[in-house]
Predict the 3D structure of the following.
Amino acid sequence: MRELPAGTVTLLFTDVEGSTALLHSLGDEYADALAEHRRILRAAFTKRGGVEVDTQGDAFFYAFTRAGDAVEAASVGQDSLAEGPLRVRIGVHTGEPLVTAEGYVGIDVHRAARIAAAAHGGQVVISQTTRDLIDDSGLRDLGVHRLKDLTAPERLYQLGDDEFPPLRTLDATNLPVTASPLLGREQELAELVALLSDGTRLVTVTGPGGTGKTRLALQVAAELVGTFSGGVFWAPLAGLADPELVVPEIARTLPARDDLVGYLRGKQLLLLLDNFEHLLAAAPELAALLAAADGLRVIVTSRAPLRISGEREYPLEPLPPEDAVTLFLERARGVGKDFAPSPTIESICLRLDGLPLAIELAAARTKLLSPDALLERLDRALSLLTGGARDAPERQRTLRATIEWSHDLLDEESKRLFARLSVFLGSFPLAVAEEVCDADLDAVSALVDLSLLKPIAEDRFLMLETIREYAAERLEASGEADEFRRRHTDAFRSLAAECYARRVDAEAECSERLESDHDDLRAALEWLAAHDPDAELELAGALGWFWFSHSHLPEGRRRLTEALARSPVGGSVRAAALTAVGGIAGWQGDADRGPGWVGEGIALWRELGDVAELAYALETLGWVFFVLGDNLPGLAAFEESLELRRTSGDVLGEMRALAGVCQMLVAEGEVDRAEPLSRELLELARDRGDPRAEHWGHHFLGDCALIRGDCDDSEDLYRASLRAALPLADILETSFEVQGVGMSAAGRGDWARGLRLVAAGYAMWESIGATLEVPFWNALLDRYAGVAREGLGLEAEAVWAEGHALPFDEAVTLALG
């Protein structure tokens, strides 16, 4: 893509009218006609300075620095297509869209697209802002029109004197004018329009307050104006308190005061019922209307589903990150602040859960606060996010009011549960909510129905952070906060202890569960730091293996060292914490404290006579020495661990220690000794179903093949090792396999792929705060990456940069592919 013009830009949109019908009528000739249409338009637009922003199917999006060039390009393009079978509609609008890495964003882009959509094939329609910048001779004034973006009317002009039907703009409807067009939600908009166009009679858009249900539903209704002969009507229900008034309100809106059923019968009509959640008792009456009038379609917005026959619930999720940032930037521009996308703004949107209302309220604050200052203050989001638009309903003027609206609809038992569930910082399983908060299914269901609680991933639930903050205030006011935070902490201490005991025989299962509950484990650690430092150290020690295996190295080290400093407790609690923090420090390249901390842990385990934990700590010490390049002491530690485990009959532990012995032999270059032991390890792993040991077995055999220069075998072995390692979600182990595949590829002459993968491995280490200087591995990297660099010559640095920038998942895919 050429560099996009910035500042005042004229945007031009095109698409083919009736493309589906043309496809059927032209058959195989359609592809040729479409290609010729593209050639003609590209030539007309680029010759006059147009920059192609995007093309999708039969549609173009171009940008011009001068309005006159855009209008001339549109005119020439239409004239050139006049004799062909395709009729193209073109819309032209001038504005100041925001340029991002993905292209243009902002209201002006939406407005230009809407103008094009209003036109007919062969017609060029131009906005007032474009008309003001060009010679207006040859333009026909089409009058003021409401476009389907629902914003204020726009005066539109037609290029030339040809006769066309009336523009496809909003006709007789009571849909309200909005302050700005809908941003984001393209997929949701298309899905809802399709549902209501394909025969679905009743669609209920559900979601928590502030997700933009009303704005989306209004846009859906606007898109369908003209497709229902009986019209499209909007009935706002937020001001009603009595369910018995719903049907009379519908009748008043249509209007059909005397005989609503008679009025609806025989009509093709779309009705939008906005904010139904407090009037659910009226749902059966709505079902009766649908049964009596088969041409009626209804779209409802509600924080809870209606639970009537034929209903299609459409849960509306918060905005994805990119759309959330776009919304923030546009609303900030509305208060005179022109920001570019930045990590700070991304963090603001993330902190606000992607809720459109919260984002709009936050963006309004940029009139007084910089994004950095705003982010700092978002720790108390509810008090900051006030002062919404004066023409918005009172319950949408602040985020707190929007949440209170849902809260007030709960019964007392559900209100108590809502407050108690605020002790969970992340998603949580139903079973834990039952244990900690005395949750019952009916109360949980009530919270889900009102979108105060979000079901995710089987039996897990999530409370959005902005909603949780309000719930936490209710818990504090109840006087139950200390009791339920203690119960929450006790539950996660038990989970951590159970997973610690099973960290070898059920590593993948336990580490996945701890990752899912990591936010709540953090909350438990922080509560214990303030109330019970000895228990904090116990919990941190139980999580040390998880922080290591899931590559939370900086966080794990910080939490363990702080807990060790706060608590003087000794025995097994201190030994576990020292072993864990030493292992992490070693993988961070700390040659002083890594072996020293693990050594202190080993001394305590020897005093306690705990053979299993002593063997585990010796294995940890072996890996620390390996990372630091001190192979002989590392081999001695692994061999002692292996002997202890064989003596005690610990087969799984034996495999882990044997893996360490194999690694040290490989590091010493003793391939002939390492290979048979690695095959033995692989056989044991397969017999026992141990994915980590299987991953190691393949890896060491891959090392041996790579050392010998057999790059075909080594690549196959590293790939097998990578596949075995992926379920463990261990970035460190994955990074070695990615680099192993890269070195093998480089050795086979696939230099670019090889160098990309080597660079990607280094990026993985950096991302988790690991500092690795393993001498034998570095020697292999120098050998094979050096071959790749020499083969690529001047291209090598660019290829390295590409690999270093690869996201984790893409690097894994490249290695496996």
In short: Residues 388-397 have pLDDT under 50 and may be disordered. The chain has six domains: 9-159, 186-315, 321-401, 410-479, 506-694, 707-816. The domain at 9-159 is CATH 3.30.70.1230 (Alpha-Beta Plaits).
